[in-house]
Amino acid sequence: MPSLTTRPQILIVDDDEQVRKLLKEYLQEENDCRDVASAEDALSLLRSSQFDLVLSDIQMPGLSGLEMAPRILEHSPDTVVIMISGEQTIAYAIEAMRAGAFDYITKPFDLRQVGVSVQRALKHQRLLAEKRRYENHLEEMVMERTVEIEHLAYHDHLTDLANRALFINKCDDALIACRANECNGAILLVSLDRFKRINDTLGHAAGDELVSAVAVRLESCVDRRDMLARFDTDEFALLIPRIEDKHLVIELAATIAEVMKPAFRLADDHEIFLTTSIGIAEFPANGEDAAELTRNAGAALDLAKQQGGNNYRFYQPEMNAHALSRLGLETNLRRAVEAREFVTFYQPIVNLMTGQTVGFEALVRWQHPRLGLLAPVDFVGLAEDTGLILDIGQLVMNDACAQTRRWQTEGFGKLRIAVNVSARQFRDRTFADRLVEVLCESRLDPQCVELEITETTIIENFESAIALLSDLRRMGIKISIDDFGTGYSSLSYLKHLPVDTVKLDRSFVIGTTTDSRDAALVMAVITLAHSLGLRVVAEGIETESQHDFLRLLRCDEGQGFLLGRPAAAEAIDWNKLDPKRKPNLIVSSPTEKTFSRAINQ
Fold this sequence. Notes:
- The protein is an alpha/beta fold.
- Helices cover 47% and strands 20% of the residues.
- The protein contains 22 helices and 22 strands.
- The strands form four sheets. The protein has an eight-stranded mixed beta barrel with strand order 13-14-16-17-18-19-20-21.
- Helix 2 (39-46) runs parallel beside helix 3 (65-75), helix 7 crosses helix 8 (204-219) and helix 13 packs parallel to helix 15.
């Protein structure tokens, strides 16, 4: 297409040489003109050259101007045609316009009239060319946007990996190919353990940065024939269209675990360690289509998560029944919170030196209307995942503080109540305020409350945890590190924590009399804790030999089936526990006024 900065190109077509010469001499001062004697010559020239304007006679030997005009416009839509004819009737002019002519000039013509008509035609041609350029540019933009939209429709906006829709399509293609070639393939669903906690703590920007970094590491594990996709916030999917041996899938899962081991360093200098849970479904054995395969891989992934994460599981048919059971349990769990089906049991905490019961640990149970009494292991993990642990934890805190106050007023001494605090509760911004409300309502001395928090919960957000624990201790509340030895198990950080008690996990207590390493570890923890002024409570004491060994190490307190099983408040046998009873009822605590001042502050 000619540039607007070049001279206009004009083709003159007439079988009369004098007419051609006259027009060419008149127009060539401002235009580049060429002339031919027939329509056939003009069409031949137009195949190799571009003209802005064609001035053509109508009546010529061979092909007429009226027959030539449509062919010119078909070949070059932006070219403008002016017809010249000795016929001065309106019918000829109309016929010329119908053929596609822009204007009609009669012979004999006035050159000034020709000049005006040519200028008007060239202006029209420039408008046509500009319109064509705009349309082409618009079409290019539409095509670019269409390509971009199609890409976004099938790719994740953050990582640029394939999304679920594209993965499902490719998975269906791989299934068809496997059936045709009698081969096997597999899909892996890869979930980032604890990602939601990291995202909630560090913010979504850090979460996005972490997901992008994970995507890069996962891509390093994938062959060109495989497909890596991002499904959800913290979930990726990997399609292996053909596998020769199941062990190759196991090796891939191990490779993924290995590439995740180095720390992820974020832009704000946070250093994050991540593990993954992986669910694996093989095809065609584990699904007729991609939807069934991903559902089954998801069931395997759920089991891997429930078993603690940082592992992989292959799909087994019984997993669907387990998933349905879990879904039903979640529905019942929500109903149970509203129906107040949760009850609080109390396990005695005993001074190992004197044998006196000095307090209780509050333990939640679910009185399921159909399944009976369920232990925490059956529902607490699900409550954490769904957020219902906040409501359940609040119910336990209310019951435990109120019950402990009742025991005190009934003359059972200044008992201490230990209440477990989940990681989700501890991260909840309203936790401290809710605790204050419970203590105010129950009128329980804060010094009689001990919160049990796992070391993992504290270490995950160390600085904010220290600040909150310090505030709670200033109120008089005691802090205990629960299940010590099962998480980070760093003895060195104990001196930095504002805590009062270390609870030895039952797994170490059980081995104290049978495993020299467990015995040495327990001895080391007790010695260090005492040197830091901390109390030590041993969990899971079940035998006399364990009890005697812990007394020998001067462990402060203990709990376990040997010392007393968990029971509802009304079922506790006080004569068996034999606490030191006070002869009079406790009407008020001497620290109530002090506590009121602390609450007001």
